Amino acid sequence: MPPFTLRPWAPADLPSLVRNANNPAIARFMNDQFPHPYTEENGRAFIEMAGQENPLHILAIEVAGEAVGGIGLHPRTNIERKNAELGYWLGESFWGRGIITEAVRHMVDYGFRTFDITRIFARPFGSNLASQRVLEKAGFVLEARFEKTFFKHGQYEDELMYAVRRP
């Protein structure tokens, strides 16, 4: 596995963000807020938004000095306030190297240290077997499967609920 760093997004990341994010194979398993095609305008708006949070909860995954993916924890509110949702993506040329599994482990540690939460959950598509493996390797447990709750590209997809609890 190549070394990677989790760090804040910076304006200089725009070219690598657009190059890695503008991929239908990535957008396929993301919610509709992750656009395809992924333009420079999308990237600028994202980098600006990600830098406004305090504490930071959306980080760049850097490999060899380049931002090649993103990972974020989204703390919930109201009666879900002890939970945070995890989301992530990685440029396709970096798949299969163990980077995202380790990034998830680091983000879980960061989340439990930084936020007043007791549970981190992720909701992969039922057909996204790679993401399910990532979560399982990182210690997440499948809590539920909801049939045909996601609707993307004219098709229904199962929603899975994986979670890890504060040790």
Automatic annotation (TrEMBL):
Keywords: Acyltransferase, Transferase. Pfam families: Acetyltransf_3. It comes from the Bacteria. InterPro entries: Acyl_CoA_acyltransferase, GNAT_dom, N-acetyltransferase. Gene3D superfamilies: 3.40.630.30. Residues 4-163 form the N-acetyltransferase domain. SUPFAM superfamilies: Acyl-CoA N-acyltransferases (Nat) (SSF55729). Belongs to the acetyltransferase family. RimJ subfamily. This is N-acetyltransferase. The lineage of its organism: Bacteria, Pseudomonadati, Bacteroidota, Cytophagia, Cytophagales.
